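User: quick one - fold this with norvaline bound?
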Amino acid sequence: MHFLSVNDLSRDQMNEIFDIADEISMGKTTSSLKDNSTLALLFEKPSTRTRVSFEVAMARLGGQSIYIDSKTSQMSRGEPIADTARVMSLYVDFVAARMYHHEDLLEFANNSTVPVINALTDLEHPTQSLADLYTIANAKRRIRGVRIAFVGDVAQNTCNSLMIAAVKLGAEMALVAPKNFPPNPQYLTRAREYGVVDIFDTMEEGLAKADIIYTDTFVSMGNEGDAEQRKKMFAKYQVNGNVLKYADKDALVMHPLPAFRGQEITADVLEGSKSIVWEQSKNKLLIEQAILMYLSQKSM
Ligand code: CP
Ligand code: NVA
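Assistant: Sure. Structure tokens for the protein plus norvaline:
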């Protein structure tokens, strides 16, 4: 079984992964991976959290990991993705891949005989969404009925994955962005099959009744060519001290990081009492351990 998209997991499967994470965090689980399991991290884009947490997750489960910067692999000289996947499957037990193009990840997975995990593509960041929702469940004691306002660039990986996974688990989404910057239509349609996704173009309306205010960079990896235009277009959608008043009084602030202080979020909000961003990052490690254990059980 691969984990390439939030669409790969049902509601029950997501809850099963959260249960494994709970067991790990309470020290209740004795399970680990088979001896000497190896995870290859094949990355085309930079990473701090996902790379380090996956490496530590493997070590904690008794396995090991190998980081491969795609620029130093034969992929950079034109070796087909399919051949790379076939060969890597001969050596390792899992691959976590961070790729520019989601289709390249699908091509890799179609040619891999070991589980492949999406460590971020242009379209999705599904491991992040599981860590985000696990964090929300712990902070709010529930996911069902929680209203999450995603602010800024609503047409990228983090938002695509979160909106589907969140509404599948019974949360509501509000997407807050300029009128001329709609969310990805396929992801929006899919999310609306499961529940409520509202769209707003003002912070006042979009943050109303929000329990979670979620933002991400205005310039995702791969969008650097439009950086100045994006920063201008999203400037009104900054999460700062003035807009928190529109949301529920107990609203919490989330960000997958890296954060660009002074752009999508101000330093005082990021470091303030409503911010749970460090907890969110911490939970990536736990959720990745749970995903690895879950995939190894399903692939036996
Ligand atoms: N949140 C996240 O995926 O961070 P990295 O890009 O540092 O892995
Ligand atoms: N949307 C961001 C997420 C980084 C973790 C990006 O793709 O750069």
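One thing worth noting: Residues 47-51, 120, 128, 256-258 surround phosphoric acid mono(formamide)ester (ligand 1) (CB under 6 Å).
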